[in-house]
Design goal:
Radius of gyration: 16 Å
Mean pLDDT: 86
Number of helices: 5
Shape: globular
Strand content: under 5%
Number of strands: 0
Oligomer: single chain
Largest sheet: none
Distance between the termini: 22 Å
Length: 138
């Protein structure tokens, strides 16, 4: 059983590390969104844009250095990673409109509900576009 778990972890190493790094970025994102929601009168979508951008930056740096360990084309990778992040932001914005506007969920809870969908979407795009072509990929 343990050997099977280790094999699964090795096989999906990049996803597992991407998810853990993502948790750190999400913590920054959600904490920033919550703080902006409580301390400002800004629309939740503005606060979400700011908090998401901060999380994207942290996630890029950590994935670049510790997960995918790519070399070269850094500016292109940053641009593509941010573009993928904007796809995630657009997806989150649409889901927030549903969760907050239609279902009347609190802002922070609504944001947390969007995370699994956006995680899978962004991981797929980043693995196959942003960080493709490096030798460490499993």
């Amino acid at each position: 059983m343990i050997a099977l778990a280790i094999k699964a972890l090795q096989t999906h190493r990049h996803f597992v590390l991407y998810a853990f790094i993502g948790l750190f970025g999400v913590a920054i994102d959600v904490a920033t969104l919550h703080t902006l929601d409580k301390l400002t009168s800004w629309h939740y979508q503005v606060s979400n844009g700011i908090s998401t951008s901060l999380g994207i930056g942290v996630n890029f740096l950590l994935n670049f250095h510790y997960n995918f360990r790519v070399k070269g084309r850094v500016l292109l990778r940053v641009a593509v990673f941010y573009l993928v992040g904007m796809v995630g932001l657009a997806t989150t914005a649409m889901l927030l409109a549903v969760f907050i506007g239609w279902l009347n969920l609190p802002v922070t809870l609504a944001k947390v509900c969007t995370l699994p969908i956006v995680l899978l979407l962004q991981y797929s795009l980043n693995r196959h576009i942003t960080f493709r072509g490096h030798s460490n990929q499993v």
